[in-house]
## 1
Amino acid sequence: MLKLILKRIVMLVPVLIGVSVIVFVLMQLTPGDPAQIMLGPQASEQDVANMREQLGLNDPLYIQYFRFLAGILTFDMGTSIKDGQSVFASIMNHFPPTVELTIAAMFVALLIGIPAGIVSSTRQYSFFDNTATLASLVGFSIPNFWLGIMLILVFAVQLGWLPVSGYGGGEYLVLPAITLGTQTAAVVTRMTRSSMLEVMRQDYIRSARAKGLAERTVIFRHAFRNALIPVVTVVGLQVGTLLEGAILTESIFSWPGIGRFMIDAIRAKDFPTVQGSVIFVTFVIVVVNLLVDIMYAYIDPRIKSQLK
Amino acid sequence: MKKRLFSLTSLALAAALMLTACGGGAGTAGTGQQAGDSAAKGGAKTLTVAQAADAVTLDPQKTNDTASANPMQQIYNTLIDLTPDMQLKPALAEEWKQVDDYTWEFKLRKGVKFHNGEELKASDVKFTYDRLLDPKTSATPAFLLASVKEVKVVDDYTVQLVTKEKFAPILYNLTHIGTAILNEKAVKETGDNYGVNPVGTGPFKFVKWDKSSQIVLEQNKDYFEGPAKLDAITFRIIPEAATSVAELRTGGVDVVLDLPPQQVKQFDNSDKVTVDKAPSFALKYLGFDQRQKPFDNVKVRQAVNYAIDKEALVKGAYQGIANVSTGPLAPGINGFNENLKGYEYNPEKAKELLKEAGYPNGFKTTLYLSDKEIDSKLGTIIQSQLKEVGINVNLQVIEWGAFLAETAKGLPMYLLSWTTVTGDADNGMYALFHSKNQGQAGNRTFYANEEVDKLLDTGRTESDPATRVQAYQKAQEIIYNDAVWAFLTTGQSIVARNKRVHGFVNMPTQNYKFYPVSVE
């Protein structure tokens, strides 16, 4: 087990280097001069030249890249071109709200998705199953920003139950979490349902029933645990999707998270900030997937014994 | 089983804790974020203002964007202020006079205190402008004082600006927030972090800045014109217009700055919300590279002017909330020429001019646009109108940064806007039309006309206001007849506010000051 974890951590290094190269090259390929963007159309040629020099944009590309790489190794992602603040500190400022939102959205998704998936699978083609299938389809297809605005109009403007937007106590979290979690809820419902259906057809389920076990025990102890592996995989992958969806959700609810922060940085061609935050988010997603792999072993003892 | 489930749960919890803990050392600006928590002070009169973008920095010398300017207008003062009708009025400088052609003298108001308790002295003014002009600062608004050679302290309350050449618009430039007076001690103490610890002399002082969320200011009790009527102002950053409108409806915010025109109509009959509209100094134009065929021909440029129905742009792209532009400046700017009436919409005349220019069947060209939403709308309408007279336009959208760089090199036809931030014709014309500013410096049409150059120089160096205005009016006339641009629209500054907010003054420069504002 420990070996697996160590191996995965070592594998992180080439992934992060690869991502850093791609991000660096992409940012260089996109047109536009960050110094010009910062100074705007009113600046003189000399001002722009001074700014470029000060930002180190006149150095050869490989020097700029290695400067960046060396920085990351020492947890120094440089300073933002836009506001001169430490990139790492800014990321740390904007990441906790996104974590909060992601966890809450995941909670919403699992709370809806798992029970709905289980019930659907045990009553295949029933009214509930069909409704859940339709709801998943709708939930998966609704664009985030539309759902967000509709939720605001109904629950904040019309009913006045919840605040429109902002960041603060739990009441501010409800609407963004539902907005962000809906798509994942749909995915989890479908995944749980199909995985459960597959497991329910297995011989050992028939044996369990033949033994005379209560249906509840059959479903939860025998079927659900075995059906959980693919669900956990999907949930792990959905973390990436949630972080991506956070970009829109955060804009709608003026949530001060990392998604909005990254979009602003890309607009301003703030190289250090974009590179730093992409590397950071990559790191988080890789770590989450590692945790998911470790979880497999806890859920399914067979995997654990294989690892040994 | 139970044990495993327990470990599973604790693993997940540990992961969540670890991730949240990463944010523990989150620096000063991000701790204790709480939406609108200042409003919870109970009975305190707080104004909550929504704006679409976060400030870049609160150091006036490090940025030139409106999102930063809005809070800075409350924190800082400049030497001179502008009234809504563009008259100069004393601010930190009580009076000023021109000593000789190159020297301006300012008498500072006595007893003005910075928010850190320091008294305003001439040395602070010198420090501020020296910092602004120091190439090491890479100050964004350095262009405002580019002609200043030296800042002299005469005594504690008298300061002189010495210019390299005669520079008449200096007084207008000193009203720009980029020239706001800083406190030497505060800037030196905080160094690189000054932008998140601003200290000014203004009616409100800085409390905290939760990045991407809100900027909170509180009343400065020692303000030199007496304390403001508001106890606090919270600037909330709400990127989505639909969200800020919902906040306005529910009372979550009191004021929405720069409301997009398409959001205005819904408040027509509102008993709670009112929308203030005022003509702004933002001007939208279609530029031609005068060196490139066929736009080197003045008849072609005039034809494009006649072929575009400006009213249709106002209705189609701005929902009627904009004005037709009549020339190279927006009305209200000091030096504006009222005699220019704008090119009427006349496709027949356009066709005739094209024929005379040697393009009886029109021609093909490309109109370059930035990726701003409004530009795409305008572009499509212009495309269909030019087609009517035989000009086939291909629309090409370029990302904003690249767009600025490309226009500086020269694009045949492009859509761009310019806001005359100081309210004076020099700011609205010198960079855009003087032949020495071709390219990057602002003259992206590469227009060169000796007479216009001379007139713009006169406006810059002549201190007699009437002579200046005359020079600018003549220059506008020539530029208008030369059809250097297709003159499209001038904007409106749109501010939506709850009716409980009183005393708000909409400014054409879009520099909003909340000092006179009160809430019921």
## 2
Amino acid sequence: MPEGLLDLLTALQGFLRPGALFNVLWATLLGITVGMLPGLTATLGVALLTTLTFKMAAGDAILILICMYVGAIYGGSRSAILLNIPGTPANAATTLDGFPLARRGEAGRAMGIATSGSVLGTLIGILALATIAPVLAEFALSFGAFEFFWLAVFGIVISGHLTALDDPIKGWIAGFLGLMVAMIGQEGIHAYPRFAFGSTDLAGGIGLLPALVGAFGFSEVLIVMKQPAAEVVRAATDRVIPRLADLVRYWRTIIRSGVIGTTMGIIPGVGEDLGAWASYAAARRASREKDQFGRGSVEGLMAAETGNNAAVPGAIIPVLTLAVPGSAPAAVLLAAMFIHGVRPGPLIMIEFPTFIHDVVAMMLLATLAILLYGLVLTRPLLLVLAVPRERLMPAIFILCTIGSFAIASRLFDIWVMLGFGILGFVLREMRYPMAPLVLGLVLGDILDKSLRRGLVLTDGDLGPFFTRPISAVLWITILITVLLSFGAVRRTVSGLLGRNREGAP
Amino acid sequence: MVRADFITGLILAALGIGALLISLDMPRFEERNINPYTVPGLVPAALAAVIAALGAMLAARAARAGGWRLRGLEVRFLADDAARRVALTLLLTLGYAAGLVGRVPFWLATFVFAAGFVILFEWPKGVAGRLRRIALALLYAALLAAVVTYVFQEIFLVRLP
């Protein structure tokens, strides 16, 4: 038996005890509920649960967080199908075909497809996690300060470019604002308190979790309350068990979406939302039933739901191997791992040799749990959608307040939550993406230390930042991304390419 | 949106320049003989410069699209339902988290906030059944305050503010 598989089985065996299985069941169910409720995202769910589980043993706490993450991304498909409102941003592509299917009276079938797509997508992602992560960790051992500096910039630029809603500049602004906020407080080399203005609270820095609870929790409360009241829930009438025929017929779509979703997950700060959109777009291009897309296409729904869930294990790959999050919820997971004494990064296979397989086992259990709930608990779960927002939102806000306070017991963290909530609300109203902001908050420290360490190593010579092979690949990609976002450059390039093609024999 | 982008761009540019000046003013620790490439202000200064540049680009782009025209800009305070709902939400949430929490016992603050939130947002539903709705809201708030306080204090062992 290959060594990796044996490690995985050992890891799985470790979780096959009543306490752990109980945690899997409640955390996944809570995740599905959080995902279903418009206004509660996977990021908020994982952030709030991190604040609540930080006194638990590391293994239990991380298991709970992973179940919450997988459950929330899956659960968001419910409200997308039934209400035409994506439960989490990752399920936006699901509404395109899920809601038309529900309107045709096929809500049950649509939910069945979402269940099977999510399960298979996660499994494809898990396969990638189990095989790629150990290799990538070994490769990352060759990363020095120069590479980590460029990796941080790469993350911000790519994430800002890909997640921007209308203008890449807004994505980059969000990313650099995140980096700037991460500069507040004592820096890691000389312990000088930057931008503290004499305040001891500010000198302690802005906590990632209160900031995220604000940006994803409080701002969401404001956004939900801003909208007019939601519509009535549509009940599922047909069967919710996935049809084998749907799976067999669209196996190519499932595998393609799984691979695309995983890849989108691996790219820093991109994550589930784009995993779904990119899979959906690819499925549409390859489909023989293009005209059905947007009108209740089973293939489109399958692609979206496979893509977003495949991105979950995908986003964890860079978390474990580079300590760079693939998505916003993965950023919280990364922070939680640090809180619990696990230090993800290139040394993970040396310092915590079993941890990658533990995470794979946790993911597998979470996947089994969503399959179970998808098959047996569909109708009772729909009751959750009937809770009026006037009742739900104050409860959410209370949790945001107490969650921000819980970690360090300081009132300043509540202020941070409030500040980031209002900032997040304003930025989102003005169509700035949130993912680069989160990525910036996480990567600020890496960027800061790597640049200064790199300069010390070279005694101020910038050469190695540009000439080392991995650094070169990263900065050239960054440069191309930035240049191509300018309309004039893009037009010139496509003009040149067009001329070449015409000139070719 | 272009007008909002224009103004945000200017604000970001100003913010960037301000942060740049503060960063340049940070100590260089020459007396400690530290390596000059590790001065604390280096990275913040670079980031601040990027933010200022991006803000200026955003403002310039918005200005080209006509965003610099401030004429015709009317401030309509709480003009529509959405704005009124956001204002009320802000008032209640900030009043709770920044006002009550830490000053009065947590369960009391939570009860007052939850009851106030539900009652005020359900007020426009009309006179019919209002008393019943208020009674239900009080019950809900009491239950919520009790459950949250108990769960966090006894199960999650959080020291409540």
